[in-house]
Design goal:
CATH class: Alpha Beta
Largest sheet: 7 strands, parallel
Radius of gyration: 19 Å
Mean pLDDT: 97
CATH architecture: 3-Layer(aba) Sandwich
Number of domains: 1
CATH superfamily: NAD(P)-binding Rossmann-like Domain
Bound molecules: NADP nicotinamide-adenine-dinucleotide phosphate
Helix content: 25-40%
Shape: globular
Strand order of the largest sheet: 3-2-1-4-5-6-11
Low-confidence stretches: none
Distance between the termini: 40 Å
Oligomer: single chain
Number of strands: 13
Order of helices and strands: EHEHEHEHEHEEHEEEHEEHEHH
Length: 285
């Protein structure tokens, strides 16, 4: 397949690009930065400099690439600028979908997020609605994810991958990361809140496989939703931090996500649980 890849230089993209090429796809990778072009070309992709917020330039770039599919791994989180990230979801994603449709592309795989489900007990599945009435600031995050997925659903085949929280190289939960700094300063409490983690390489593998999945949302998370009372102490011990403060209780929506649908589609996480994944990624030396 010929693929227009938006977001090839990000945390998932850096792992996914060589996988796509190794699988025999040809890739036109986009970046906003001319400095990234040589790296993308050296990896074996064609490269194009375009900002997805520049609608007319994006239309031209996608049309010129003549892709069969669009891979969307766009986020704007390296500066933790959540407003910029939401703009990519609300404005950038519709631009990309419209550019793909105008170029006659039928298939898109897009990076979404799992933590949009409403209150409940146990891990959420894809048939549960988004928590659109959540209080702020969660409300605007969910509105952004909703806008992203609404746009992706306009594709003839649009697959939205509702990823767990990434850990592994270059992520917020890497050994050298803000999370580690915060846990060393005892700023993250061990609560009863449950999250779903995902090794970033497993996210990349799911994105590759999703090029042949049917349309719709799919949770991509490891097998074991993680209560803060379990993952924060393990993380702390692995990075040599003091035991975290313990605060019982959880927000009712902190419940993790079920990966049953993804597993049913054939995706098998190489890191099935954060318990062993954290040891692999966070141990010293
Ligand atoms: N589920 C999760 O837990 C999750 C999801 C995403 C990110 N994160 C975290 O956020 C941190 C930063 O993520 P990241 O390293 O992937 O970087 P990032 O800054 O979020 O960028 C990701 C990709 O989006 C592209 N991009 C951003 N804005 C764009 C625009 N307007 N037009 C075109 N392309 C655009 C970037 O390309 P260029 O910069 O080359 O233009 C890059 O390829 C990481 O620590 C990661 O773990 C977590």
């Amino acid at each position: 397949m010929r693929i227009f890849f938006a977001g090839a230089t990000g945390a998932v993209g850096r792992i996914l690009l060589p996988k796509l090429l190794a699988a025999g796809h040809s890739v036109v990778a986009s970046t906003r930065s001319a400095e990234h072009v040589a790296r993308l070309q050296a990896a074996g992709a064609e490269a194009v400099v375009v900002d997805v917020l520049d609608r007319s330039a994006l239309f031209a770039a996608v049309a010129q690439a003549r892709p069969d599919a669009v891979m969307h791994q766009l986020t704007d989180l390296s500066g933790r600028d959540f407003a910029a990230n939401n703009r990519l979801r609300v404005e950038g994603t519709p631009n990309l979908v419209d550019a793909a449709l105008a170029a006659g592309v039928s298939r898109m795989v897009a990076q979404s997020l799992y933590s949009i489900y409403g209150p409940g007990e146990g891990p959420a599945s894809e048939d549960e609605p988004m928590d659109l009435d959540a209080p702020p600031p969660r409300r605007s995050m969910i509105a952004g994810v909703h806008a992203l997925e609404q746009a992706v659903a306009r594709m003839p085949v649009g697959v939205a991958l509702r990823n767990g929280y990434f850990y592994g190289p270059g992520t917020w939960y890497a050994r050298e990361s803000l999370t580690t700094d915060q846990i060393r300063r005892s700023e993250i409490a061990a609560t009863g809140g449950v999250v779903s983690f995902l090794h970033v390489a497993d996210a990349a593998e799911a994105s590759l496989q999703a090029l042949s999945w049917p349309a719709g949302p799919v949770n991509i998370a490891d097998d074991e939703p993680a209560p803060g009372t379990a993952w924060v102490p393990l993380f702390a011990s692995l990075v040599g931090a003091p035991p975290p403060p313990v605060k019982p209780g959880r927000q009712p929506w902190e419940r993790g996500a079920s990966n049953a649908k993804a597993r049913g589609l054939g995706w098998v996480p190489a890191c099935p649980t954060w318990r062993t994944g954290f040891v692999q990624e966070l141990s010293a030396g």
